[in-house]
Design goal:
By secondary structure, the chain is α/β, with parallel strands linked by helices. It contains twelve helices and nine strands. It has one domain: Deoxyhypusine Synthase (3-Layer(aba) Sandwich), CATH 3.40.910.10. The strands form two sheets. Strands 6-2-1-7-8-9 form a six-stranded parallel sheet, with helices on both faces. Strand 4 and strand 5 form a beta hairpin. Helix 2 runs parallel beside helix 12 and helix 6 crosses helix 7.
């Protein structure tokens, strides 16, 4: 009937299908929250592998958890009623009802230090974060990895909040004994050159906050997004970006006046796979 949540989902799937079909549309996937440990890793890596996504904008945490699995670690379900003090004593960290073993983070730390130590000194202070992640992807062998598939398919990963993650922390500690820094301004130059050369832009945004703002803000150079879908649990009353309706972006030139857009209210770990299935089914 095209009403309520199902109607929103149907319209979002139609818009997403249009993004996938339109060869002139540069499509972002924006990831906030624990989307990788929440189970979306394979869905995202397949989208990249199949050429349906042109750029990823993500929190540093999703990169870290992709690498945790690429380096042989796992994510586990926390049993109901599990005491956090017991998890801590057992060497485990919790994300909602997911937990990760400290030993997997230790393996991650060793691999990251080895990677950074292997970079030529001339690159340790000149790489943009997206270039750093591409270089990192070239060293991975796990074909399920988002970072590896992004490298193989020339899909840049932008992470404006990369320092706010364990990867960022390890970059800091490495820099205390080695010359190392990333050029975040260079990433804006890279993204700006891409956006100005595209005819249309589209975005699928899971959650809000920094990644949503960075995605939308980068399209100001073109007058805003031509197509957009967001899945969020945030409410609009507090004025936070996560709950802001997409139409609000029109006034900021982050969404075109003629754009097609839809917001779906709900948990992205449930809805995103259905959105993609619906979009691909429409495309077929």
């Amino acid at each position: 009937m095209g009403v309520l949540g199902a109607g929103r989902m149907g319209r979002a799937a139609a818009i997403t299908a249009r993004m996938f079909e339109d060869q002139d549309c540069f499509t972002y996937l924006s990831l906030s929250g624990p989307m990788v440990p929440g189970g979306l890793r394979l869905v995202i890596s397949h989208l990249v592998r199949d050429g349906l996504i042109d750029a990823i904008v993500t929190s540093g945490a999703n990169i870290v958890h992709d690498l945790i699995e690429a380096y042989g670690g796992r994510h586990y379900r926390v049993p109901a009623g599990q005491d956090d003090a017991e998890l801590r004593s057992a060497g485990m960290g919790r994300i909602a009802d997911i937990f990760v073993r400290n030993e997997d983070f230790e393996a991650f730390e060793k691999r990251i230090y080895s990677f950074m130590g292997g970079l030529p000194e001339s690159e340790r202070t000149t790489l943009a974060p997206s270039e750093f992640l591409s270089e990192l992807g070239s060293t991975l062998t796990d074909d399920s990895s988002i970072v590896r598939q992004a490298y193989l398919n020339n899909v840049p990963i932008f992470s404006p909040g990369l320092m706010d993650s364990m990867l960022g922390f390890h970059m800091f500690t490495f820099s205390t004994t080695n010359r190392f820094s990333l050029d975040f301004v260079k990433d804006l130059r890279i993204l700006g050159s891409i956006v100005t050369e595209t005819k249309k832009t589209g975005a699928i945004m899971l959650g809000g906050g920094l990644t949503k703002h960075f995605t939308m803000g980068s399209t100001i150079l073109k007058g805003g997004l031509d197509m957009a879908v967001q899945i969020t649990l945030d409410r609009p009353e507090g004025g936070s970006l996560g709950g802001a309706p997409l139409v609000e972006g029109v006034s900021w030139q982050k969404v075109q006046e003629t754009a097609r857009f839809e917001t779906v209210i709900g948990d992205a770990t449930i809805l995103f796979p259905f959105l993609i299935l619906g979009a691909i089914d429409r495309s077929d």
